[in-house]
Amino acid sequence: MAKRHPTPPDPGHSVSVPVRVRPGAGRTRVGGCYDGPHGPALIVAVGAPAVDGKATEAVRRALAAALGVRPGSVALRLGATSRDKVFTVDADGTAVRRRLLALREDVTEQRRPPAPRDDAGDRQRGVARPDRAGDRRRPDAGRDGTG
Predict the structure, then answer these.
(1) Order of strands across the sheet with 74-78?
(2) How many C-beta neighbours within 10 Å does residue 36 have?
(3) How far are the Cα atoms of 15, 49, 51, 64 from residue 27, in angstroms, in the given order?
């Protein structure tokens, strides 16, 4: 019986995606850029721990979802036990590259500017709070402090 050899992916259709993994994150997030050993890498934070390939599998699925491709078209090429990995995406190269550039530039949550300060130097949080420590009246109390 003749052995079947898988056909190599078309170079125009496969894209190499360097990734920097952040395992054990509070939530899954894909976006941002990291200067890694394989070139500019996409940062992928996943909640899975870095144990027995759980984080790698979570990254593979998160990357597929972020790029809009099937999880089966994303395969690990380098870095099985490293935080710096290279995945191969077998899909339309131009669409994947365009989406990848947009994701690398997405640093809105990674480098969030500090909250503005009011004139007293306190950070404004957008929640109602007493102006000073001595002014702690109940919300239903009258203006004269009785109630």
Answers:
(1) 29-36, 39-45, 14-22, 84-90, 74-78
(2) 19
(3) 26, 12, 17, 16
Specify which residues 75 forms β-bridges with: 88
Domains of the chain, residue spans: 14-105
How many CB atoms are located within 10 Å of the residue 67 CB? 24
Planar angle of CA 77, 83, 88, nearest 5 degrees: 20
pLDDT tens for residues 115-137? 555 565 555 555 555 555 555 55
Closest-CA residue to 108 (of 46, 17, 29, 27): 29
Cα distance between residue 53 and residue 41, in whole Å: 19
pTM of this prediction? 0.65
Measured CA to CA, the distance from residue 57 to residue 127 in angstroms comes to 39
Query: So what's the architecture of 14-105 in CATH?
Result: 2-Layer Sandwich (3.30)
Contact indicator for 69, 97 with CB cutoff of 8 Å: no
Own/partner pairs for 136-141, CB < 8 Å, 24+ apart? none
Q: What is the DSSP-derived secondary structure letter of residue 122?
A: P
